[in-house]
Structure formats: structure tokens, C-alpha cells
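subagent[fold] <- orchestrator: predict structure for attached chain, return C-alpha cells only, no commentary.
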Amino acid sequence: HRAWVQKRWTIVRDMDFLALAIATAGYVAVIWFFFNGWATEVFPDALRLYPMAYNNIPAVVCVAMELAIVYAFVFLLYQMVLDSDPDRRRVMNVLLISAFVGLIPYVVQMKHFRYHLVPSLTFFWMAAGLLVFIAAFRVLPRVFAACLALIVIAGAGYAPNSRAAYTTPKQMEELPLTKLVKACSPGCSFIVLTTDMPANEITSYYAGARLASRFPCFWFLPGLAHQKIDMDAGKRTMLSHAEYTRLLHKYAALVREDIDTRRPTLVITCPEEFDYLGFLSVDPAFARSWSHYHLDGKVPINYADYFPDALPNSLPPVFSCDVYRRSASSF
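subagent[fold] -> orchestrator:
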């Protein structure tokens, strides 16, 4: 943009451009050398498997279009205000453009989670607040105009984000899964075999226990499961049968390696959700690894506890999950 506006291509010599280029190159180098396995093995698979599991496309597209219309409406309102301050106009344009760009990760992730909209909405409310301030400043003193803008932003931001939309820390600590893991012996580690992150990440935080897997969730399974269903139905698939089999064995082996090397004290699996043990059994070495575990009860997992703001009927039912404990002699 700078090269186009200033009609010069020597911007590559500008200090800020050089600093940004060096920082970006350094970031890429760190990822490549210190997280090479993720960059070369996991990330390429994520680009292929993650989109296969998109199941919230109508809801996500609808919300994104509604917000885009609101952003465009605010932009048109600002044009009607006829603000003569060029700096304020530049700031407003940057905020609204950033709000539009902030919708991209929300659409790409296709999860329809509230927090995925936080970047976009943050820029939008800043722009809306500036618009209120500019309009109010024409009839009110600067201080009163600023106070009015802050009140409008606070009220509009709080309305869709009330406390009822979130589970409190106390409630998280009282969840059966959290209490189960917390009651484990000191130094206990665990893993919940699941395709959603909260059961592992939130439980690890509130129970003070280590998650014994490189995967906070099995993000790769929904895509593979969709491919299997389409293959069985004779439909055209993005993966060949050989590639599907390779990826299935690859990730089953990686999870099994985590069980071998990190030796989780507890392994929780919900057979009503998915046959996770059947998935892991495709790895020939899994039977030996699993021989160290025995069934030690059940625990309910309700994903509505982690997503209280989810749309009705968008979450699975309460699962009665099996708890497997590692034999003390196998540590």
C-alpha cells in the first residue's frame, strides 16, 4: 500500500519494513527449527482434515453476513457525519477495515464459538464508540461526549456477554470430571479422548493436573470419520483409501506414543460419542500399551458446561464416560 501511494519501490529499505521483515523471518525460522515436526507433519494435515469437519457453515456464514452488514451501516453513518478531521477519518477507516478482516478467522475456523468474534467485535466497538463521540461532540462538551461514548460501548458490549453466558470458575471446579482428576494422587496426569478442547484444557487448569498428550483434542478424527462415511457410501472423497489409511494409522500411533511415553494416570473415553479405543486399536502396538489400564468407574461429561452460550441442540447429550486407571506397577 505504501509503495502504491508513495509511488516508490524503495520501501524495502525503510527501517520499519526491514524490522517487520526480519521479525517475520525470525518467527518462521523459530517454528521451522524448534517445531519442525508440527510444521512438516501436523500443519499440512490440518489444512486438509480440518475443513472436512465443517458442520456449522449456515450459522457461521449467517452471523458473518449480519455483522458485515452492521459494519457497512456504521461506515455509511460515518460518511454522513462528514467529519473534517483527516486523522480521525484515517483511524475510523483502519478500525472498520480491521473489524472486517477480523471476521476471517471466525469464518475459517467454522466453530461458531463466541470468543472467535472477539477480535472483530473489539475493533467494531472502538469504531462505534468513536462515531458516537464525534456525533455527541457537536452538541456536548468533550468530556460529556466521551462519557456518553464509553457508556454506549460498555452497555452494548455487556448485553451479549453477561455473566450468564459463561461458566464461573467455581462451577468449573465442581464439575465431576474436574473433581475426579483433582482427587487423583499428586503428580497425576490424564487425557480425555475427545474431539473438543475444553474437557482437556479446562480440566487441566482447574484440577492442576498435567495433560498427558500433545493433542488437546483429536481435531483430525472428524475429518477422517467423514471420509470413512463417504467411502462406505460410495461417494467421491478428497482422500484416497490409501491416504485415509495412512493418516488413520499415523495419528493412532502418535496418540499411542503419548500413552507410552507420558503414561497418563487416567484415560477417559466416551464410547457413546465415538469409538476412540477402536480408532487407537488400528495401531498394532496399542494392545500392549493398553494392557496397563483397567476400568475404574464412570464420569459424566456435559459439553454444555463448557459452552453455556451454544445454540440449542448444537451440542451432544450428556455422556457417561469410562474411566481407565493405569496400574501402579506399570509406572
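orchestrator: received. Logging for downstream: The two ends are 59 Å apart (CA to CA). The mean pLDDT is 87.
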